């Protein structure tokens, strides 16, 4: 491997980790939301809300971290609408999620109109981890990133531990698998579903805000360009497991980075076809993942999308 | 404390009242969003009404938007009844427009107008149907989530259009095809400047036909049973595979027809912006209509008015078009929330308020069980 090729590869893969983190955060959140039995198809809208309010917060305060928190909070509030309609009022989760996406798209393009193409002056900066970042090849790719990327790593481990090794996780899964039994065992079904839907919303918001507060520090209508939907598909790919979510998100981050790199390099491949690549890949992946889930019977929470009504059989 | 009792039947007044209240509440929520941006909602709504119904011309423009909405929402009424959530009307619309336009741009120029137009409409319909058959096959064979698949296909369709427009179909590097020849233009029905075209009759005919299919045919009954309980449908001998595929083909075909009709009659040129976000508005129209195709016609006109007015306020008042999405989704939120009242009887109770000795009202099933126990004891 000659040195220039090596350095290009490192920069592409480091970009892949960043793009992957945009997808990882919403995917992780949705894994937990769906584990609790709530299907939230509004990730795209929530990411847009996070992206816009993150941008706005960073613009007004000059601090991108404050922006990120504001983006998360705004998306969490929007996710509460979803929880209220789907959990308390037992509305149709598919259509509510879709409404949430239309809402997020409309709201951010309405408020964002004055901000289009304005740039942030300060963005989230990388912070190399001492020691780890010195590891050849792996160091510059994984450990010379920013705090949000590291938070992604930590959340993967944390959520995996929480989901499979703690009582909270057992209760959470019980609510998604068999709400009636969980209720009989004294688990607060409604509270659990609300909580994880809102957490999922906040993480989707974080994914969106990470775009505007770090990677593309300006506002454009529909800046997430379908990544929320890719995240929804990645949850199936991940078989509702946080570790697989990491693999899937970084894999798609690589496709995204490769696509951008090829476009920048001005290859002869048509740019429309290149831009189509992530969606085409997701299309293939969702089919393959569904087949695998069918054969191995893993993952899918049994009562996903089914509202719980205590008084009904 | 609130308690919900399942209703056996929804009273007709609720079926009317809930959508009306949803629209009013949705407009109110839209107002709140506008107030935060220091925009006067009354002026905006006034301008929307004026922009949609202000004159014969503006109303005909509203109907121009209503045509694709009617065609798409009517088809969605059919598929949503069996809980096949095709949200890919946008992609089906685009593919329909591409397929039909192919004939308009590259077909034999000497062909007679009726024949060429018929072939274009057929090809557009087939294109939309083809784009809808993919998620339907994936659903019935492998149970792949149709929401995700149709959505991804929307993006893929957009990029296919992009591919052609920046490729061989564009002119001099602009993403704009050459103008359709007169032979390839679907006739308009009113004197200019109105762009209203005979697609309106396609839409009305489709609404009536779908209504008849749903209400009067065995197939329509099967889609309904399938939506309520798939297992029961299988036991009853309904061919789930066939039903899903046919319904998906109908809804996709109508979306494709909408795409080519709008392109051929209104735009008369294929371009990147073929207003395909109508695909999402159509979903709202279908849901707001309670999945009744005849009601969907009226709702489509109302939503078209909102869209037409939305374009006007953007131009005249510089209020961003995004507000239309906010209002539409707010209406949909309220409607979904309102389903709790149509599906359940909501009862306000105080905790532990059941007087001793009386049977607590805990729904039909439970009281039947109690009766049986009483009989067993006697």
From TrEMBL, chain A:
GO terms for cellular component: plasma membrane. It is a multi-pass membrane protein. It is found in: Cell membrane. CDD domains: TM_PBP1_transp_TpRbsC_like (cd06580). It comes from the Bacteria. Its main location: membrane. Keywords: Cell membrane, Membrane, Transmembrane, Transmembrane helix. GO terms for molecular function: transmembrane transporter activity. The chain crosses the membrane at residues 38-58, 65-85, 97-116, 137-163, 194-215, 227-252, 272-293. InterPro entries: ABC_transp_permease. It holds the Pfam family BPD_transp_2. This is ABC transporter permease.
Automatic annotation (TrEMBL), chain B:
GO terms for cellular component: plasma membrane. Keywords: Cell membrane, Membrane, Transmembrane, Transmembrane helix. The keyword Transmembrane helix applies. CDD domains: TM_PBP1_transp_TpRbsC_like. It is found in: Cell membrane. GO terms for molecular function: transmembrane transporter activity. InterPro entries: ABC_transp_permease (IPR001851). This is ABC transporter permease. It comes from Candidatus Cryosericum hinesii.
């Amino acid at each position: 491997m000659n040195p220039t090729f090596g350095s290009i590869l490192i920069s592409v893969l480091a970009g892949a980790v960043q793009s992957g983190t945009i997808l990882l955060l919403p995917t992780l959140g949705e894994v937990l939301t769906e584990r609790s039995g709530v299907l939230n198809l509004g990730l795209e809208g929530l990411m847009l809300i996070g992206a816009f309010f993150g941008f706005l917060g960073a613009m007004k305060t000059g601090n991108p971290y404050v922006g990120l928190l504001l983006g998360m909070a705004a998306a969490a509030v929007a996710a509460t609408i979803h929880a209220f309609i789907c959990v308390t009022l037992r509305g149709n989760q598919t259509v509510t999620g879709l409404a949430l996406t239309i809402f997020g798209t409309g709201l951010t393009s309405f408020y964002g109109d004055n901000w289009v193409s304005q740039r942030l002056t300060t963005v989230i900066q990388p912070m190399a981890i001492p020691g780890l970042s010195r590891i050849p090849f792996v160091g510059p790719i994984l450990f010379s990133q920013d705090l949000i990327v590291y938070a992604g790593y930590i959340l993967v481990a944390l959520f995996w531990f929480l989901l499979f090794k703690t009582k909270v996780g057992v209760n959470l899964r019980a609510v998604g698998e068999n709400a009636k039994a969980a209720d009989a065992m004294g688990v607060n079904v409604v509270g659990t579903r609300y909580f994880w839907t809102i957490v999922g919303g906040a993480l989707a918001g974080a994914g969106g805000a990470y775009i505007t507060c770090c990677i593309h520090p300006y506002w454009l209508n529909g800046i997430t360009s379908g990544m929320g939907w890719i995240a929804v598909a990645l949850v199936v790919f991940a078989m509702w497991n946080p570790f697989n979510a990491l693999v899937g998100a970084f894999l798609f981050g690589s496709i995204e980075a490769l696509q951008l790199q090829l476009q920048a390099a001005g290859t002869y491949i048509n740019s429309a076809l290149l831009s189509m690549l992530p969606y085409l890949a997701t299309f293939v992946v969702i089919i393959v993942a569904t087949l695998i889930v069918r054969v191995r019977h893993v993952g899918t929470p049994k009562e996903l999308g089914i509202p719980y009504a205590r008084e009904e059989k | 404390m609130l308690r919900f009792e399942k209703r056996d039947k929804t009273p007709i007044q609720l079926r009317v009242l809930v959508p009306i209240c949803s629209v009013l509440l949705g407009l109110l929520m839209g107002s709140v969003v506008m107030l935060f941006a220091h925009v006067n909602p009354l002026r905006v709504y006034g301008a929307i009404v004026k922009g949609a119904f202000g004159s014969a011309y503006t109303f005909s423009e509203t109907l121009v938007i209503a045509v694709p909405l009617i065609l798409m929402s009517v088809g969605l009424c059919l598929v949503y009844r069996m809980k096949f959530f095709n949200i890919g009307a946008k992609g089906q619309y685009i593919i329909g427009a591409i397929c039909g336009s192919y004939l308009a741009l590259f077909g034999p120029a000497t062909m007679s107008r009726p024949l060429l137009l018929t072939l274009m409409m057929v090809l557009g319909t087939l294109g939309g149907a083809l784009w809808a058959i993919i998620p339907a096959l994936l659903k019935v064979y492998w149970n792949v989530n149709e929401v995700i698949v149709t959505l991804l296909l929307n993006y893929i369709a957009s990029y296919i259009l992009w591919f052609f427009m920046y490729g061989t179909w564009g002119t001099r590097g602009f993403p704009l095809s050459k103008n359709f020849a007169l032979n390839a233009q679907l006739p308009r029905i009113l004197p200019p400047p109105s762009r209203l075209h005979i697609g309106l009759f396609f839409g009305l005919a489709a609404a009536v036909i779908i209504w008849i299919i749903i209400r009067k045919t065995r197939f329509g009954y099967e889609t309904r049973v399938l939506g309520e309980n798939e297992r029961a449908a299988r036991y009853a001998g309904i061919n789930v595979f066939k039903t899903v595929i046919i319904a998906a083909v109908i809804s996709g075909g109508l979306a494709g027809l909408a795409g080519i009709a709008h392109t051929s009659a209104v735009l008369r040129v294929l371009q990147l912006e073929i207003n395909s976000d109508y695909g999402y508005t159509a979903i709202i129209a279908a849901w707001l209509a309670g999945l009744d195709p005849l009601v969907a016609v009226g709702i489509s006109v109302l939503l078209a008015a909102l869209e037409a007015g939305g374009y006007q306020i953007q131009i005249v008042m510089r209020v961003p078009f995004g507000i239309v999405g906010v209002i539409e989704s707010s209406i949909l939120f309220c409607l979904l929330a309102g389903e709790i009242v149509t599906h359940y009887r909501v009862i306000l109770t105080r905790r532990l308020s059941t007087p001793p000795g009386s049977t607590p009202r805990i729904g039909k099933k439970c009281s039947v069980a109690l009766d049986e126990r009483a009989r067993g004891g006697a």
